[in-house]
């Protein structure tokens, strides 16, 4: 239905001669009422604030997280609800790395599952993967030692036997979901520290 330059639908112009002055006033009011309008700025602000917070912040990724961790979507939401509290993330021996442990489903039984927070600019040391690993980035980014930049919505999969390190971008923390089946650091000092990092 196209509109005339006067804001009135074309079909009403065809009825122009048949409408009384009262009909025209009533139609004008009706058209004014159905015109889309912007929500009040306070409502828009509340809505934006709501989707910026967890768990809704990562709502576009719920299904992919459910697949990665082998959880129902409500299980993913429960993990992200826990992540609202900074105390839910535990410190590790690696400066700039915090982990929130996740209890996954049967398909990932025996793997280490985490919601991971890497500080901006963190250098994650070179390491080898004795088993497969998958890292799904929710926010922020990092540059892998191969040169690949991994950002929001990217799934970085490393096969058993692969080796790499990475550097987190400086602008913001990198938040990712991980499933890993072992990790061995290649440097002697970091190997010692890895005894304290799950």
What attributes does this structure have?
single chain; 198 residues; alpha+beta; Jelly Rolls; six-stranded antiparallel β-sheet; five-stranded antiparallel β-sheet; 11 strands; 26% strand; elongated; disordered N terminus
Architecture overview:
It is a single chain. Helix 4 (62-69) crosses helix 5 (73-82). This protein starts with 9 loop residues before the first helix and ends in a 5-residue tail after the last helix. It is elongated. It is 28% helix and 26% strand. It contains six helices and eleven strands. It has one domain (50-196): Sandwich (Jelly Rolls). It has 198 residues and is α+β, with helices and mostly antiparallel strands. Strands 1-2-3-10-5-8 form a six-stranded antiparallel sheet, covered by helices on one side. A five-stranded antiparallel sheet has the order 7-6-9-4-11.
The gyration radius over C-alpha positions equals: 26 Å
In terms of structural class, how would the helical and strand content be classed?
A: alpha+beta
Largest sheet: 6 strands, antiparallel
Which second-level CATH architecture applies?
A: Sandwich
Which percent range describes the beta-strand content?
Answer: 25-35%
Instruction: Provide the domain count.
Output: 1
Between the first and last Cα atoms, what is the distance in angstroms?
Answer: 62 Å
């Amino acid at each position: 239905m196209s509109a005339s330059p006067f804001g009135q639908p074309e079909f009403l112009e065809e009825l122009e001669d048949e409408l009384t002055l009262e009909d025209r006033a009533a139609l004008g009011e009706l058209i004014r009422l159905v015109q889309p309008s912007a929500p009040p700025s306070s409502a828009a602000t509340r809505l934006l604030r709501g989707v910026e917070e967890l768990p809704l912040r990562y709502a576009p990724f719920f299904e992919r997280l459910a697949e990665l961790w082998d959880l129902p979507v409500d299980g993913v939401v429960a993990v992200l609800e826990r992540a609202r509290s900074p105390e839910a993330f535990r410190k590790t021996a690696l400066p700039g790395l915090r982990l929130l442990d996740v209890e996954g489903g049967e398909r990932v039984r025996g793997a280490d599952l985490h919601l991971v927070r890497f500080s901006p600019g963190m250098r994650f040391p070179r390491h080898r993967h004795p088993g497969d690993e998958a890292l799904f980035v929710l926010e922020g980014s990092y540059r892998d030692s191969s040169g690949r930049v991994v950002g929001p919505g990217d799934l970085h999969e490393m096969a058993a036997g692969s080796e790499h390190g990475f550097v987190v971008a400086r602008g913001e923390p990198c938040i990712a979901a991980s499933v890993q089946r072992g990790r061995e650091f290649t440097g002697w000092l970091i190997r010692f520290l890895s005894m304290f990092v799950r």
